[in-house]
Write a structure and sequence with these properties.
It is built from 4 helices and no strands. By secondary structure, it is mostly helical. It has one domain.
């Protein structure tokens, strides 16, 4: 297939179906089976419309699931951040542990590559 986008391919199919309909007499005169081709495109289009609606619904579900995951991460991050602040208060910001905790956020870029997806499991 040509390098057309999803939307361009869908538009192409619609345009071909319209051309079949608007030029049916001319195509039939040239020996083209307009009825069979129109039915084939129509049947395949119905399948496409159903599949496209399904995947669009899944996209919406994915957005909602992502929003829920982000909200859950925000909640656990606030809890961890509050705990880290409390730990520093308990041991003092100049203690080795206090200094380590205070540097922790800045180190996360590298540490995130090493942390498994399930922490505390």
């Amino acid at each position: 297939m040509a390098a057309l986008t999803y939307a361009q391919r869908a538009s192409f199919c619609t345009t071909v179906a319209e051309l079949l309909k608007s030029h049916a007499a001319e195509l039939k005169a040239g020996g083209f089976d307009v009825t069979a081709k129109t039915k084939a495109i129509s049947d395949a289009h119905a399948t496409y419309v159903t599949a496209d609606a399904f995947q669009e619904g899944k996209k919406a579900e994915l957005v909602k699931a992502t929003e829920a995951a982000v909200a859950a991460l925000d909640k656990v991050y606030r809890a961890a951040s509050n705990a880290a602040d409390g730990m520093v208060s308990a041991v003092g910001k100049e203690s080795p542990l206090g200094q380590r905790i205070r540097k922790l956020r800045g180190e996360m870029t590298q540490a995130a590559k090493k942390v498994p997806a399930t922490v505390g499991a």
